[in-house]
Protein 1
Amino acid sequence: MIALQAAAAAAVQVADGTAHAAAQVAPAWPASLGSASDWWQGMDALAWRLTPWVATGKIPTAIAIIAFAAVMFASQRKAKRGVEIPIRRLAGLDALDEAIGRATEMGRPVLYVPGTDEIKEIQTIYSMMILRHVARKTAEYGTPLIVPTKNAVVMAFCEEAVRQGCVDAGRPDAFIADNVRYLSDEQFAYCAGIAGIMYRERPAANIYMGMFYAESLILAETGFLHGAIQVAGTARQEQLPFFVAACDYTIMGEEYYAVTAYLTRDPSLVGTIRAGDLVKVAAAALIAVGVTLASIAGSAAALPGTHTLSDVYSRLFG
Amino acid sequence: MKREIPILLTVICGLLVTLAYFAPAPDPARGIEPSAWQAVNSELLDWATILVAVGFLLGIANLVRINLKQIAAKHPDTPYKVVLLLSMGLFLLFGMAEMHVKWLWTPLLTHLVPSDSIERADGTRIEGYVLERGDKEVTLRTAPDYAVTKVPADSVKSITKRSLKIWIYDKFFAPLQATMFSLLAFYIASAAFRAFRARSVEATLLLAAGAIVMLGQVPLGDELTFGLATPMHAFLMGNVVKAGQRAIIIGASLGVLATGLRIVLGLERSYLSE
Amino acid sequence: MATPRSFDRRWIFLAMGVVVVGLYAAGIRAPLPNSRYVESFHKTIEDLPAGSIVLLSADFDPASAAELEPMYKAVIHHLFQRNLRIVNVATWPAAPPFTRDAFSRIAPQYHKQYGVDWVELGFLVGDDVALGSIGQSLRSAYPTDTLNHSAYDSFPLLRAVGDSCQGIALLVTISAGFPGVLEWIPQLGSRYGVPIITGTTAVQTPPLFAYYPNQIKGFLGAATGATQYLQMVAENTPELQPTRDENQKRMLVQSWAHMLIIGLIVVGNVIYFTGRRKAQA
């Protein structure tokens, strides 16, 4: 029903948009494209005529997304063809194995905290992938794995990730449902619950992977007080300083997104990381161009022959 | 089909919402009406809001299920779990009773919901439950039968509303939350003592920057540094931090964009445990 | 000599407790000079024409109320003094008690009429989905208000808002985390071009420098920003002067807490380097 209404509304909009546009004064097309001002006039005329169909101010965003998607697909194809794309060593990930090994030697469990946000948060999705890897390792070594969650839906995903990890290790019997625990939706109640687990069950390794907020320092400091080895990973930049201060290893910012590619070496993921890096280089180049244009525009009166560049800057960036 | 249907739903909804972003904004001056894309987007957002709300119910059900199971198994923390379930149940009961004052059966109403104090224009006070206060009339339920009645607005001088839900919030929830948050002050002091070492050039720079920011944030900093703390803080935050933050935001946003594109196009299936 | 690992942290906790409680009890005030970000925040509100509609979002809870509630109340005073109309929403479930308390005390002082000068719409579930709903259509997001449960269109103020935030001149968000200002920026600021100013906790302040002055026109960073803003607004607002004085007292407490932390860092480094020299000897 909604689709029919939407289609009808779109059809009405086509007819009405055309009629109303004709009633307004549209900018004229330029006679030629010989000068910069002709180009600007042409772009204004095109933008005015496109406005009933698309938000013209967002066209650069659309172009950027399409360009990024193209680079991403090209990189993924390259990776799937078997071309080696190196990812630099992430010390925090290697520390994961060390932490799990230490917990096994001490006969104490591993605590994995998948962040405090919901499953719709991308960092939580990535945390599930890392959890599966950790679950596989702990199942191989026979080490208990405790996973407290803040959200019931995330708990279901965690259960599935741990179960799959145990299956990957060939030890489906190692999955203990009671070790994946939903504590509370309330931030500090969840934090207090995890602190309680640390006090009572004394895990030897604490792994924090996902989106964290104010509870990050409380968790990390409580874990340190109990002598656990701690590995943290988040892309939430406000919490990074607390993890860096209190944890043994920290995976920071976009390294966190590279983690799954590093762990699985999946060509699709590796290609995505490469695409992100290429776009960052392009963004840096664009920033350099923008800074140059802004500097020229700021000193246009002093530098001869720079008026066109100043005009370009003003048109692009107001 | 078990796999294909969720992927199809994700792709369709993701593409619809993405395309709606590029729909033109309404412009009455040019006769551009709100587009169909926006109507579809609005509908999907309403559905998403409902799903999130249902998630709360799922959370409550899970909380009860897990804790009851552990109480039955005589878990060592049974007393805490009993307190958890009791407090959740009572708050839910009082809160829902207050939301439905208009319909609630009178014996339950008088026992679960504290009455409001209503001062009349003639100076007398009565106890009752105010349902709605408009410009012309006030709707309420009062003794003896607690039927819904309306009185002229000018006959009511003032209303003091009482709420058990808010009382629990003010006396328990707010202080407990504030207490947990205040732990951060102590923990940052102990983390600073333990972890901030000038082990290398980078660590020393980090320390120095942290000290400058801490001094610049407070009035005492300027007094101790001959007025240098504030301008140094402003320079650091307005230039160095700004540049670093923008770089981190761009990097993290590209990661989010990549994953978002993969999910919307059906390439990322980790949410299906694949 | 005790090493950092063997040192009993409870002495540090005790020192912090003594500094905070002792100085707070002393009650000495410490005024601050205003920063340009706070002045931009103030100016953005001052520059709005009377009668403009401001969307005020309470995105905090009791944990951060010590930092944010004073600035929230100061903003309401400032907006009413400028005869601006307020549509109040909340994206955190624990925020509504603060908003109701604030408006019930402040609105009568300016003889502001509910429904005409301000409306309380309450908490909307959904985090950033809720923000998207609000931006797309406030009517669709909130069919009724939260105080009287009256229909959206029964309020003259809400009828003036329109879809896609057409009628909203400014968004003021008092934000403690997620969802907050960093989510409002893409959902309302970039998408619909609504100017944004914000007040945030200390930990959320550093990222805001990256968004100033384009996406965010001004901000109040932590208790420092709150104190500076209170100093500006309380000049014309006797009711806010006790809050301003209280915040200035807290700034002194915060000053010495910072000094304690710097002192602990210095002591920790002395212990570290002394221990290292001994080990090398």
Protein 2
Amino acid sequence: MFHGIDPRSPIPLYVQIAERVRLAIATGTLGSAAPLPSVRQLAAELRINPATVIQAYRDLEAQGFVEIRHGAGTFVRELAPGRRARERSQQAVALVRKLLAEARRSGVSLAELQRALETELGVKST
Amino acid sequence: MTDAIHLERLHYRAGKNFEIKDLDLHVPTGSIYGFLGPNGSGKTTTIRLILGLLRPLSGRITVLGDPMPEQHARVLGRVGYVPEQPHLDATLTVRELIDFQAAFYPRWDRARADELVRRFELDGEHLFGRLSKGQKAKLMILLALSQCGDLLVLDEPTDGLDPVVRRDILGALITYVSERGATIFISSHLVHELERVCDWIAVMDNGRLITEAPMEKLKHGTKRLVVMNAPAEIVNPPFRVLTRASANGGGGAGENWVVGDWEPGMTSYFEGVGASVREVIDLDLEDGFVELLRSFRKGGTGR
């Protein structure tokens, strides 16, 4: 779930961790009541500051995705119907934005991008 | 008391060529504080001053609430220190060294020491002098952690070690912090390692402090800008200009700037002076570190 967390990225580590957890919840990898790794365990595994993990979990709690039970751990909350789907479509939007930004930076035009996308999806053959 | 280490206007001189001048540091309790600087910048000297091993010419040193070097006996009982060079008796075994160290520390945690011997795969019967560099480093960390100090001062603890050993050591440090909530002061020039774990960063060069800031602030405040039509002189910008140079090739009006203390929205400053920012590029800690040093050495905007 946390593969490829990048400390050199301008996106703060706690944001990256929270994003991964939200994605796992959205796609159902983490179901309702599923436990998140303990702060100690995740900090040691990623070799990051435990405070960073705590901050990520607190943000997730504030957003209503998880519940922190003191002494017991952090657990995925029961989500309202439709929330997972909404979260997934938000992830899709984020992916597209990332792609567009990268394309702009490297000078790939929209038409070229669209053609590549269609080819990859098998809509159109080259 | 909110600072585990507090230095105020510290002044120290060693010989003619090296001095530490006007050094202020604030290491918040509970932080993992990265102390960065090139070799010879004064990191080890600063650490020795913090521990009361050297006396400053002037200035104040407070460690865990007590003045140094006056209270060094009391303070050092609560501080785990790993020096740059292994300093243990080469003719003693791992087990003897652990027992020897344990005798000095009333809070010694025997269970943690045993656990780390296993985790680090150390053999109690081996002589210190025969250990590999990585095993020596692990033993030093083991000794510092088992003292159960409130502050760990680590001088280049992973310098020159292979990635596996570095991982083991960082993992043990992180486990310790999550269990005990101690402050860690860690000097290094391995920027990427600090980027993972630290929440505060200080940068030193040539005996001076260049910057001290929360990691996120430092990372997010340092950017590379592509500026078009920049005027030759700029007055009172809301950010710090670290370097500026004309963009390579083209010969156009574009310039590359590196700025500090940057915040989103500051691009409007350029519009006010008839210029524009074409791109704002994020820098990682290493890029930011290099740019800070470069600008400081040019005698530019260091403090």
Protein 3
Amino acid sequence: MLNNLGYLSLVAALAIAAYGIVAPHLGVRSNNWNLVRSAQFGTVAVFVLVLVASAVLLRAFIVSDFSVAFVWENSSTDMPLFYKISAFWGGMDGSLLFWELVLAGFSAFVAYFYRRTNREIIPYTVATLNVIQVFLLFLLVTWANPLAVTAGAPTEGRGLNPLLQHPAMAAHPPLLYLGYIGFSVPFAFAMASLIRGRLDNAWVVTTRRWTLFAWYSLTVGQMLGGQWAYEELGWGGYWGWDPVENAALMPWLTGTAFLHSIMLQEKRNMMKVWNVTLIIITFSLSILGTFIVRSGVLNSVHAFAQSEIGPAFLIFIAIVLTIAFALMFRRLRLLEARHTTDTLLSKESTFLLNNLLFMGMAFTVFLGTVFPLVAEAVRGTKLSIQAPFFNAIIGPLGIALLALLGVCTLIAWRYSSAGYLLRNFRLPVLLGLATAGALAAFGIRHPGALIVFGVAGFTGAVLLIDFGRTVVVRGRQLQIPLWTALGSTIMRNQQRFGGMVIHLGAVMLFIGLAGNYFNVEHNITLRPNKPVETEGYTLVYKGMQTKQQRNATLRGAEIEAYRNGELVEVLFPARSFYPTQPDPLTEVAIHRTFRHDLYLALASENDNGASVTLRVLINPLVVWAWAAFPLFTLGTVMAMFHRPRRLAEPALARNLGLSGS
Amino acid sequence: MWGSWKFWLVMAAVGLMVALFTYGFTTDPKLVKSPLVNKPAPAFDVTRLGGGERLRLADLRGQTVVLNFWASWCAACRDEAHILEAAHKRFQREGTPARVIGIAVQDTPAKAMAFAKRFGKTYFLALDNERGDIGLNYGLYGVPETFFIDGEGIIRHKQIGPVTRKVIDEQVRALSAAPGAKP
């Protein structure tokens, strides 16, 4: 009964969303603003209806109502409540409903809070958002119904895949979806601008925060995915260039380019064609990402969910790309820039290079991901593109990007003289070379690693010196102490400070990635109480233990790890057994320091614990990569607070409802 | 816009990508064709399950061989058990120059014999060794898999998953009609 109510809510939402596509167009055409407003109210109604359907599904999970097929497939009574809730997005249908719920929420927010600003383009924005919602709701109402009933009333469910019963895996899909959906808003605004022919910077300024929020969600979503892979899959790495991973990386690459490129549009009215192209591609890649993951069209170790809705996604992508690019080409003349890049040695050209590098990386990842399909179509052979291809190309491009980050921060707008360059870059370049030199002196000889560390030193120096100089100058000018100057500089330049912090996070991430050059792996067999030396640690196997942990049984080896004669940690590499699953999972044990991770995975228990074989890995600098996360968070929060105080076009400022232009 | 070559270039790129993914729906990414098709079948040397005669692949020259890999723990193998047995009986009755051979992988003699008894298998059954050498040589990905080998010892077809009567009849007819088959 309740489940039927949920389903009917979705049907009603579909009808209202479909109305919301047509009404705004009719309203503008016939100059009837009430029609447009009805569509805006419609988005709020759609959100409420989808919320009802979601609440119904959530309730079914919480009370373990296995008459709902989706609940039966993804939940079981023995699961902790936290995972019963996260099972909502543990499968195709539920995650589509989650996607629609968030999109409906964002659409309602946009329709309501921007109803007075952007009056010219808001009708078309609402219409575009409704187009996407109609697609999702149609799938939900037909092939991907999360509230479909099971035959019979089972008393126990299949349970959530134990691989997903990990906090990082519970948060990973929602965060990625927030990113994908977040990019829908700038996309809708861009489409509206193109339809209307109103191609000033209104859409860019309005959606800046959405873009930042979407970027942050995608970044954190992927970091959590990597962290989960590192701790749960047990192969010792956090990124495998699997098609599913690449599917999330591609929109992140173009989305990051977009995030930066719109700044150039805001400040100098340039790159409009780039920006429209980038948002179309980013949005399409986010749909394509879901398509690749869910349709099973590419071979992947992540192929957990394959359904018949693949063709529907492909058709939707084709339609979006065709119509969006057609609209862009129709307005091409209006988009072309008033200013052009003056010289090579300018901030403008570094932004252009930034776009090119990110697009290059995205294209490489795309090519590597779909190439197996191409090979099969053309030659009938099966091949698999693995890490070596991606690392060989993305690696150097990434290092170039890291260097560009430093260059762009310091270089001047429009033109930099040779003298200017020499003065400003001298110190950071020296610091970068000194970093590389010092590390080489300490025994690090790997050329790739030295380059990364050197460039990281250069870029880090640029970021800190540049900001530090601003603080010092301000302190001197206003004759206030440095601490106060620091605080006031931060508060007056939130976007710049936030950007610097995020970029510092990126530098840390690169340092962490460089650690992969030095990964070491051994297999060792241990007997009880007989110490074994490996990689500077002495490991002592004390015996096997069985522990009960909520809904899983752990069986693992107690290992004491000593360094320089002192006990540093007692580790428990184990296998976990879940009652609803036949095969055990690996639970690795990690001892983490600033220099490296000591990573132990249980390979086998021999003769009932008489000896135990471990895979021992030393992964240097992993914590540096994870350390980027708090920096990304802080920087994003700061940058979100930034309000554009002055705009070049007074009409634009009025249109956006900003006072004091 | 319609005259712009850039527009058409973008449309062509979109069309190409859509076409590629549409093609992707016609293939099964998990299905890997065997590189052994049209190559000589790897030799094996086994003893009959339950003791008895020895059999080498070379002994079967001149006959079409339906080489089936199975296991007692394999659920899908139950589906095809009666089909293979029926084929074996059919070949005997009609004098077709074809043999059905079954190799159990990662199995124990006791369990394999129990399975054979339960499903009434009377054709030649043997066990792969502990290392699974025969399975490895044939590039076995899982069970059941069936190889169709012609009279000259060349693999002509690999069936992944349970075999059907239609496939057996088609393959055996094609291979037995080929030159080199002895009655």
Protein 4
Amino acid sequence: MAVCSCGYDASRPFKVDPQEAKESPGPIETFLLRNKEMPGQQRELALKFRGSASEYFRIWIVNLCLTLLTLGIFSAWAKVRKKRYFYSHTTLDGTPFQYLGQPVPILKGRVIAAAAFLVYYASNHFFTSLLPYVFGAGAVLAPWVIVRSAAFNARYSAFRNMTFHFDGGYADALKEIYVWGLIPFFVLGTMFNWWGKYAVAAVLVIVFSFAFPWWIKRLKNFLIGHTSYGGRNGAFSATGGQFFKVYFISGLIMAAFLISTGLLAAMLLAFTKKSQLIALLALVPIYAGYVLAFAYVQAHSSNVVWNHTRLGPLRFQSTLLGRGMAKLYVTNALSIIASLGLLIPWAVMRTLKYRADNLRVLQEGELAEFQGSDLLAVEAIGAETVDFFDVDLSL
Amino acid sequence: MITIEGHYYDGRWPIAVPATMEFTGQDALLTANLTSGRYAVDTLKVSPRIGKTDRFIALPSGGQFQCADHAFLESLPQASPSEGPVAWLEERWGVALAGVAIVACMLLAGYFFGLPAAAERIAARIPIETEQTLGKQALAWLDEQGWFTPTNLDKNTQKGIQDGFDRLRSELPLKNHYQLEFRAAGAIGANAFALPGGTIVITDDMVKAAESPDEVQAVLAHEIGHVELRHTLRSVLQNSVTAVVVATVTADAASLSVAVAGLPVLVAQTKYSREFEAAADAFAFRLLKQKGHSPAAFASLMERLAKQHEQEERAFAYVSSHPVTAERVKRARAAAKE
């Protein structure tokens, strides 16, 4: 794994030498020469999300309507339109991102996903004897799905006329996902019904829960390390311990809510016999605890990922808060329910804005460290050919 | 001549260079910084319009020119022509309001009429034999997992119930597909199930809870109703379509709000389930009268069972899989009087 060859090297300031570059200097070269940045200087690239709820509402409803009218076929076009909206309203240093995905590969991906779901559904409901084999096939295919969707997303995301790339392969993904043999063990266990033995199951659940943060770290490291932009691969330096801390605190939050609710319910039960009512009321704080714990994981694992990611001269600072995310989730859910779904687009916009507002992009070095070079030409040919495996599997 | 201000990106460095493009007839002149390039207009490709954001013009050289949206850009070759009409629709509030109305009508009509009617028709075309393996597997699984144990009822009781059951089914279209199974089921208590394919299970507790043979027949008639009306298959069809449609509509919100996607599915599916229960009740009342039993036996049994777990009702009416007992009892008494 050649991952970390890409951290910013301050001792190597980028030089543009007209004689060396091309016979005649292009517009960028001359522009660079005239507007040379000071090496070692740090500056912030403004990241802004400018989507508007009223504009996105119209896009959402038109695409939803067409999707329902075409019995789902239009959903691939709808995805492209929505992604275009999100990307083009996110600007970095004043330039919007570009989504270049095309509907047909997405449609293919959805057909494949639908077929896989049908197989799973049929075996789950009608041919239960086949279920272990379906799980086995799913486990074999999972790395492929991860790799394909990462590659698709990278390849069709562009900034300043340069696309991202993902160069992870099936074998790498297989290694990263199943590294400790934990998941195959789980799959085998499900296949041969080991779970009947409660002691085995309990031990496995505990082992798996504790290993999970390290597994997430490896997966993130795999995805970030194999994603590149302008010839620079991402570098990821977070440790499993940092993820463990996030999950552990969220577990404590959940436990605190459960225990205090339990104590309160026990006290109330001493005074009244309406046990059904108390059981129902107890669900409220338990659910609140769940939302808070979930929001905490979302916010802080996102922070861990961004704050330990570097891409060439860029590093990131994410300042999401569990409280903020929980507030967002709750107000979103309430408004969506109260408006019978009509406020979904508004909720999407404010969530994206909240995320963008809490992410800073810092540049330490020159953007010209990113070089598109000739990869672009190769890519253009690749995109023209009808490649069956050019499918978007990220639903 | 039209001149558009913007930025140029050469595709080799992520550097924005202020630039202008001048269009004269079939000719486009790009001036970026100190250099310039001339292109034929029909070799350009303009990115689709979305909202009010900037557009990108791809040049045959691999470079790209970014500029604010401009009506003139519509006359240039488009990178994704199929999106043009969609963008046109997306810009209009009238279209959006019509969209809300159409979506609401489609969802309501589909939910209340279209989907149940379609599921009924499809179920009628699929022979019940296809469900039989599933029913056998389900029973075998319940036996294996210890939910069910062999019945403790004596042979005479079993025979009496079996004979009544055979009389009930004797004239029904699916009469040859029924199989009655007796099981003891401690944890489940007094209950009866219609498994896929025509297998009906009645628990010992249910037989004991009944105070007359007519009450047992009433329960069996209800389960026969589920089989005869193909409720297993219809609920699988209706529930899966509901889940897919809800997932499509709430796709954007699913990742934002944990509760949003699950709740409507639950409410929608339990409504169908209550309708099936009511339909099976109505079927049972007709069948019982036809065979000379009184639906009133169903009412008395339901009331007795309800007393055993009284408090739960009402509060959960909208998320309950079964109709409220009082309503079922009222209907059974009304059917008995007719």
